[in-house]
Design a protein that fits this description.
With 268 residues, the protein is an alpha/beta fold. The protein has one domain: Metallo-dependent phosphatases (Purple Acid Phosphatase, chain A, domain 2). It has helices at residues 18-30, 48-58, 79-84, 88-93, 131-142, 172-181, and strands at residues 2-8, 35-39, 65-68, 101-104, 107-111, 148-152, 186-189, 196-199, 208-211, 225-232, 235-243, 248-257. The two termini are 21 Å apart.
Length: 268
């Protein structure tokens, strides 16, 4: 069975790259896919006009669509709201237009919100995945023994060697191991604005963390871009597309082997 996911991330409406976003939008509209996954930071400051622009854009895209919020999707100007209703604006504007969980023949996808409106540490923009969140997602994946299993989250659960910044996800290592043992094939994330593919160091080493770049002007050593993820049998092909100022081009490509479908559910 062949599956295709398109992964967009860190658009940061309010500080988006208009040309790169337009090119990515055209690609999404013209390319057949099974799921469009958006891995957080849809807005820059969590402001109402930014959410309105994001919602208008989402309404023009084909489906199915699944998204998870990022740390920038809380209201940065409004401490009280961030403390008491961190996701109210996201839920009003974005949630009606996207799914949080998705199932199709051969595919099961779960989202985890790793962002927080506040935390008991100075840099609350870093991630946190509770044991309850990890268990809930792992249990859902373990119940689908004959499907490709994907998790969508904003922060990389484990640090990326050579990455431009850290995620410092509290509970991230535990979550990564728990999801691996549940048979997750892919854990899609954003946040670091850099595309990557990394095998997680648990079980059979056949669970892959996949990060996408940004479609904003907040660049960290890579041009704006997004991922096209193809699963063809046991083959995973991740193509990182980049906007070079004139056109989209292939910037990076990874091809790795997933665990055979027959092994899923038998324990990683």
């Amino acid at each position: 069975m062949a599956l295709r996911l398109i992964q967009l991330s860190d658009i940061h409406f309010g500080f988006e790259d208009p040309a790169a976003l337009e090119a990515a939008t055209a690609y999404v509209r013209e390319t057949p896919f099974d799921l469009l996954a958006i891995t957080g930071d849809i807005t820059q400051l969590g402001a109402d006009p930014e959410f309105a622009a994001a919602a208008a854009w989402l309404s023009t895209l084909p489906g199915p669509r699944l998204a998870t919020p990022g740390n920038h999707d809380t209201p940065w100007a409004g401490l009280a709201e961030r403390l008491t209703a961190a996701w109210a604006r996201y839920d009003r504007s974005i949630s009606p237009l996207v799914e949080r969980h998705f199932t199709a023949p051969g595919l099961k996808v779960r989202s985890i919100n790793s962002a927080r409106g506040w935390q008991v540490r100075l840099n609350w923009s870093k991630g946190h995945v509770s044991r309850g969140q990890a268990a809930h997602a792992a249990d859902a994946l373990a119940s689908a023994p004959h499907e490709r299993k994907v998790v969508v989250v904003h922060h990389p659960l484990m640090e990326i060697p050579g990455g431009p910044m850290t995620g410092r996800v509290r509970g991230g290592v535990h979550a990564a191991e728990r999801l691996t043992l549940a048979g997750a094939d892919l854990i899609l994330s954003g946040h670091v604005h850099t595309p990557f593919v990394q095998a997680l160091p648990f079980g059979d080493h056949r669970t892959f963390a996949v990060g996408a770049g940004t479609l904003s002007r907040r660049l960290r050593g890579e041009p704006p871009g997004f991922n096209v993820i193809d699963i063809r049998g046991d083959d995973l092909i991740v193509s990182a597309m980049a906007w070079d100022g004139t056109r989209l081009q292939l910037a990076h490509a990874w091809e790795v082997k997933l665990r055979p479908l027959a092994a899923i559910g038998a324990g990683a």
